[in-house]
UniProtKB/TrEMBL annotation:
Its main location: cytoplasm. Gene3D superfamilies: GroEL, GroEL-like equatorial domain, TCP-1-like chaperonin intermediate domain. One of its GO terms (molecular function) is ATP binding. It is found in: Cytoplasm. Keywords: ATP-binding, Chaperone, Cytoplasm, Nucleotide-binding. Residues 485-514 are annotated as: Disordered. This is T-complex protein 1 subunit gamma. GO terms for cellular component: chaperonin-containing T-complex. InterPro entries: Chap_CCT_gamma, Chaperone_TCP-1, Chaperonin_TCP-1_CS, Cpn60/GroEL/TCP-1, GroEL-like_apical_dom_sf, GROEL-like_equatorial_sf, TCP-1-like_intermed_sf, TCP-1_chaperonin. It comes from Gossypium raimondii (Peruvian cotton). Molecular chaperone; assists the folding of proteins upon ATP hydrolysis. Known to play a role, in vitro, in the folding of actin and tubulin. PROSITE patterns: TCP1_2 (PS00751), TCP1_3 (PS00995).
Length: 514
């Protein structure tokens, strides 16, 4: 289900991405705040499983409550939980299977199952395709079979309202929201352009500080102007020596420079964002140059196949596309409305993170709650061999893992108790680790056949984050409020003692500021 949030500035957000929802909340409860941090960490680390972390951590705390009431010491519970965590990760290692990153179909199935809970899953393979294309484009080999994918730097998502979602695509290159400096004089379409990227202004330099020049003769004024013009002309000539077709600069470009460039038939784009310039450099193979006099032939980018300015909606966009081996790309999203596009973008972020995780660590575990059930069953069997008092919390942790498949079953609208019992029965004898719930039908199915997967490091991260956070919150016994109370007028002016909350009234309202 989707949630509609009103954020502080009065805008609306429509989403069901756990992190996006929690980000908008601002809670005063300290424990709740640290739970929100969890989903944030998860989003930054692996980009998926933001909701699962919260569900799991909440469940861990929930089962611990019974032990706290029986006066178990929190450290005992934490010890048991950590033991459970180690065993859970061991189980993950056991049931994980490796895949081949080059195999497009497997990757598609994987990314699809990871965003199956998201809003865009109704558009079929669209988002998954975009995500895989984008991440495979920008992947860089680090050697030793490792690939690094920098989503933030080299994949730009451009949202353009209008058109249909099906028009969205991954460009083999870069798109920027700019037009050429002098439309009409400059070419708007160049095949196989030679591109020069600068990050210096092509205009007359002003002094660093204010300078006053006193001119005695009138001729000196003309000399001064001439010098300015000659300076700009020499700048342009230095650039034109390399016969570029397109000059892109991050800073300004004066009218005169514009004139020289357009006379030579060179298109120019000015005031491009630094990040965009980096992307163009990555895509076309150019090197960003600081001073025109330092230009070399090797700095000219020849990797792009086409430069063209198109009008989409009522804005002009410059495309530098059809690159030979782009290491940066732009994902162009089209859609009916702003809200829709924002949600699609969030889903795409998740999908790209998943694709990145798999490229980094190509191991899979079953989705649909199957992993959690397997972990839970294994932990239950192991709990009989745990010695001493830690046995009970350990068993409880095993039960807590069932929260995920249970929530799944609830969301499918099937009979939760029956489904859960059937699943536990199937997993208890450990015959098939891949039995889980199909999220669309609620039927019990084999995840291998249904192609419902999860990335190994998403699961591992989820378990680690959730259990560690639960341990941290369990260890809190007092909350000392450092916020001054508003005193009733005329109430005692004497020194007030700091008030220490005990466990009993930690849920009381006193902690919250009015």
């Amino acid at each position: 289900m989707l949630k509609m949030l009103l954020d502080a500035s009065g805008g609306i957000v429509v989403t069901n991405d756990g992190n996006a929802i929690l980000r908008e909340l601002d809670l005063a409860h300290p424990a709740a705040k640290s739970m929100i941090e969890l989903s944030r960490t998860q989003d930054e680390e692996v980009g998926d499983g933001t909701t699962s972390v919260i569900v799991l951590a909440g469940e861990m705390l929930h089962v611990a409550e019974a032990f706290i009431e029986k006066n178990y010491h929190p450290t005992v519970i934490c010890r048991a939980y950590n033991k459970a965590l180690e065993d859970a990760i061991a189980v993950l290692d056991k049931i994980a299977m490796s895949i081949d990153v080059k195999d497009r179909a497997t990757m598609l199935g994987l990314v699809k199952s990871c965003i199956g809970t998201k809003f865009t899953s109704q558009f079929g393979d669209l988002i998954a395709d975009l995500a895989i294309d984008a991440t495979q484009t920008v992947g860089v080999d680090l050697g030793q079979g490792l690939r690094e994918v920098d989503i933030k730097k080299y994949i730009k998502v451009e949202k353009v309202p209008g058109g249909q979602l099906e028009d969205s695509k991954v460009l083999k290159g870069v798109m920027i929201n700019k037009d050429v400096v002098a439309p009409g004089k400059m070419k708007r379409k160049i095949v196989n352009p030679r591109i020069i990227l600068l990050d210096c202004p092509l205009e007359y330099k002003k002094g660093e500080n204010q300078t006053n020049a006193e001119l005695v003769k009138e001729e000196d004024w003309e000399v001064l102007l001439k010098m300015e013009e000659e300076y700009i002309e020499s700048l342009c000539l230095q650039i034109l020596k390399f016969k570029p077709d397109l000059v892109v600069t991050e800073k300004g470009l004066s009218d005169l420079a514009c004139h020289y460039l357009s006379k030579a038939g060179v298109s120019a784009i000015r005031r491009v964002r630094k990040t965009d310039n980096n992307r163009i450099a990555k895509a076309s193979g150019a090197v960003i140059v600081n001073r025109p006099d330092e230009l070399q032939e090797s700095d000219v980018g020849t990797g792009a196949g086409l430069f063209e300015v198109k009008k989409i909606g009522d804005e002009f966009f410059a495309f530098i596309v059809d690159c030979k081996d782009p290491k940066a790309c732009t994902v162009l999203l089209r859609g009916a409305s702003k809200d829709l596009l924002n949600e699609v973008e969030r889903n795409l972020q998740d999908a790209m993170s998943v694709a990145r995780n798999i490229i980094k660590n190509p191991k899979l575990v079953p989705g649909g709650g199957a992993t959690e059930l397997t972990v839970s069953a294994t932990l239950k069997q192991k709990s009989s061999s745990v010695e001493g008092i830690e046995k009970w919390p350990y068993e409880a942790a095993a039960l807590a893992f069932e929260a995920i498949p249970r929530t799944l079953a609830q969301n499918c609208g099937v009979n939760v108790i029956r489904t859960m019992t059937a699943l536990q029965g199937k997993h208890a004898n450990g015959e098939n680790a891949w039995i889980g719930i199909d999220g669309n039908t609620g039927a019990i199915a084999d995840m291998k056949e249904r192609k419902i997967w999860d990335a190994y490091n998403v699961k591992a991260q989820t378990f680690k984050t959730a259990i560690e956070a639960a341990c941290m919150l369990l260890r809190i016994d007092d909350i000392v409020s450092g916020i001054k109370k508003k005193q009733a007028p005329g109430a005692g002016q004497g020194p007030t003692k700091p008030k220490v909350e005990t466990e009993a009234d930690a849920d009381g309202e006193q902690i919250l500021p009015d």
